[in-house]
Write a structure and sequence with these properties.
Helices cover 43% and strands 22% of the residues. It is an alpha/beta fold.
Amino acid sequence: MNLLEAMRYLVALEQHRHFGRAASACHITQPALSNALRSLEAELEVAIVRRGRSYEGLTPEGERVLASANLLLREQELLRQDLHSSVGTPRGTLVIGSVPTAIPVAARFAAQLQARHGGIVPVVRSLSSPEIETGLENLALDMGLGYTERNKKFKVLPQYVEQYFLLRRRSAGAAALLQLGEVVSWREAAAMPQCLLTHEMHNRTIIDAAFRKAGFDVKPAIETNSIVTIVLSVLDGEVCAVLPGALMALVRGYKELEALPLREPEVRTPIGFMMVKGTRESRTLEAALTLATDGAWLHHAAAQGGILGV
């Protein structure tokens, strides 16, 4: 049995929470993945996976094995990067988890990092805030881009301040697409039917708090965990949406839409990169941290995350 491969399969299974999808991600058949995990259980003499008609999670012993698996795979990646990198030429993967509302900024960051260091392969994953925090804690993520005020135990690099806009269909005679126009209050927005993210998304918590501060408990007409669904619901339906500035550039091509700044109350939310404190940094993470503190990049991120994307 290849111990590291079996550990990789276990990590994939917990990430995808489905035997078939985990096997596909590992480029093996489902029986091969299942057999490898059974061999791992036999080697360690404990049950690792709770099996039913479908994947039901890990046993308590399995959770301990998963923690060791993440640590082993991280050390393997650190060693591989040390062996194949040279000064100024990092090589290897860098896994970034981003909240959906910050994905455009995470994508631009990954693109600029890869352009600066061709040997780095960034992997950007769209995750909820709890998923990012768990991924950082179990070393499945190198960096997380999200709401830094949620959890104080991570090392933080501030990136930009999230500002909010009301996305709606353009009224007759409205100005050019997605230009800063009239200011809308949260009270006015509360009177409009809304398509909002689902409750597990921290962005929804922020929006609900803003509406309550304006004196309203808004019941959305549509809920989703997908930014694409929000945009298309506004485009083809009778709803509006509250979205941060980082997402505005994604809808610039829709002539039917307009974005209006939201005020009263003023809502500003810090967004930053988060890393685990006290862990050894990989070569790729060192390069990413250099870019994340670069003045030109921070100016670009601030422009994307604040007023309409440039």
